[in-house]
């Protein structure tokens, strides 16, 4: 497949990979616990495309230590119990060196313990419930804590002089990260900012009609309405808010940061403000990635704009490639356990890696330290409000 040279060159330079040819037998295998269906499918179904872009670029540059990279995928369907099966299957049956995913916090909560026992690095691209990876030596996440990310939204609103005197919270109760956002993240950040929470409404992910919840919000209108939910429910909420006359600004974490959210929300979404860790129009490298992503996804008739979780998945492959190159990983079955540990050790000391998303390191809690871009919806498009770099 023809590759965009700017990305391939940047990838090879960042990883310091050799250009020696490799035979098909000389492979290094990564596992991937994918969520091809489920409540976050709007985000997750294209992540594998991004991962394969990274693999193709690495292999086009000669592979890792002269060996080709390959991915073995297990579909968890977004179910925690299947994520556990996926980790075990990839480790025991496929002899993978490290694992990409699983996607969500619900899956990561149960996948991290089994991966720890099996001594293999597992790295989600979306899980962002606070401190899930912290207890584990083999647990890493290419995500930033949602508490920090939402704090950047509030900081930016204050800097821009946008009204934020009062707030309400609306969140799903049957999804881990949505519930964490609604019960822990939003209340803590609002309290820290001195913003009273006037109302809290809840709903199920399967709720078709949110008019009762919005009626409660309308009874005591606030400047801000913080939503903890996947994008589909956030779209329903803001549409119903405008229908009932609520003019408050919707604010959220990265759980609704779909690249096509402005188009899907339409006029009701104007002013919606959120954090993301990828901005496709940031520089030539991000634009080249977006173009290659669109090329590969357009044939499927779905979303062709890369989301932050697509970029995060791409970067996970680069992190693993870098760690394997630094550790001199061979893929020798007799060295498998030791090489899995060596990958972990290299990730733990990786600093300021020049990733697609920006300069990235890992903190002591296993979470990525990377830039946060604050965006708002303005007449069907994203408007860039500001950027903050997570401190090491």
What's the structural blueprint in terms of helices and strands?
Blueprint: H1 5-15, E1 27-34, H2 41-44, H3 47-60, E2 68-75, H4 80-92, E3 99-100, H5 105-118, E4 122-123, H6 146-159, E5 167-172, H7 176-192, E6 197-203, H8 211-219, E7 224-228, H9 231-243, E8 249-252, H10 261-265, E9 273-276, H11 284-297, H12 308-327, H13 336-349, E10 353-354, E11 359-362, E12 368-369, E13 371-378, E14 381-389
Parallel strand pairs: 1-2, 1-3, 3-4, 5-6, 5-7, 7-8
Antiparallel strand pairs: 9-13, 10-11, 11-12, 13-14
Note down, in words, how this protein is organized.
The chain has 392 residues and is α/β, with parallel strands linked by helices. It folds into two domains: 217 residues, Rossmann fold, CATH 3.40.50.2300; 148 residues, Response regulator (Rossmann fold), CATH 3.40.50.2300. The protein is built from 13 helices and 14 strands. The strands form four sheets. It has a four-stranded parallel sheet with strand order 2-1-3-4.
Keywords:
392 residues, alpha/beta, Rossmann fold, four-stranded parallel beta sheet, 13 helices, 14 strands, elongated, disordered N terminus
Task: Give the count of helical stretches.
Answer: 13
Q: Structural class, from secondary structure content?
A: alpha/beta
* CATH second-level architecture of the largest domain: 3-Layer(aba) Sandwich
- Report low-confidence residues grouped into runs of 5 or more: 1-6, 18-25
Counting DSSP E segments of at least 2 residues, the number of strands comes to 14
Report the span from N to C terminus. Answer: 38 Å
What profile does the largest beta sheet have?
A: 4 strands, parallel
> Could you give the order of the helices and strands?
HEHHEHEHEHEHEHEHEHEHHHEEEEE
């Amino acid at each position: 497949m023809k590759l965009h040279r700017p990305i391939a060159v940047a990838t090879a330079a960042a990883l310091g990979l050799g250009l020696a040819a490799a035979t098909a037998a000389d492979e290094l295998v990564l596992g991937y616990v994918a969520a091809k269906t489920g409540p976050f499918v709007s985000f997750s179904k294209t992540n594998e495309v991004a991962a394969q872009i990274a693999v193709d670029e690495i292999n086009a540059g000669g592979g890792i230590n002269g060996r080709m990279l390959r991915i073995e995928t297990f579909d968890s369907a977004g179910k925690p119990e299947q994520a556990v099966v996926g980790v075990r299957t990839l480790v025991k049956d496929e002899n993978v060196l490290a694992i990409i995913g699983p996607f969500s916090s619900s899956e990561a909560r149960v996948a991290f313990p089994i991966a720890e026992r099996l001594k293999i690095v597992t790295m989600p691209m979306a899980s962002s419930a606070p401190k899930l990876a912290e207890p584990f030596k083999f647990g890493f996440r290419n995500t930033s804590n949602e508490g920090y990310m939402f704090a950047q939204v509030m900081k930016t609103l204050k800097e821009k002089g946008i009204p934020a005197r009062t707030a309400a919270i609306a969140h799903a109760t049957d999804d881990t990260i949505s519930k964490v956002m609604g019960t822990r993240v939003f209340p803590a950040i609002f309290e820290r900012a001195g913003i009273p929470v006037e109302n809290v409404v809840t709903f199920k992910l399967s709720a078709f009609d949110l008019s009762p919840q919005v009626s409660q919000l309308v009874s005591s209108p606030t400047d801000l309405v913080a939503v903890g939910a996947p994008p589909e429910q956030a779209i329903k909420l803001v549409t119903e808010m405008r229908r009932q006359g609520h003019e408050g600004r919707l604010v959220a974490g990265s759980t609704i940061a779909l690249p096509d959210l402005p188009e899907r929300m339409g006029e009701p979404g104007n002013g919606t403000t959120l954090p993301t860790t990828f901005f496709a129009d940031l520089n030539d490298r991000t634009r080249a990635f977006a173009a290659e992503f669109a090329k590969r996804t357009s044939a499927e008739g779905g979303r062709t704009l890369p989301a932050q979780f697509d970029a995060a998945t791409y970067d996970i492959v680069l992190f693993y490639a870098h760690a394997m190159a630094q550790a001199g990983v061979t893929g020798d079955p007799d060295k498998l356990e030791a090489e899995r540990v060596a990958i972990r050790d290299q990730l733990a000391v990786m600093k300021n890696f020049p990733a697609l998303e920006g300069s990235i390191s890992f903190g002591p809690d296993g979470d990525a330290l990377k830039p946060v871009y604050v965006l708002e919806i303005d007449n069907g498009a994203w408007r860039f409000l500001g950027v903050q770099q997570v401190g090491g």
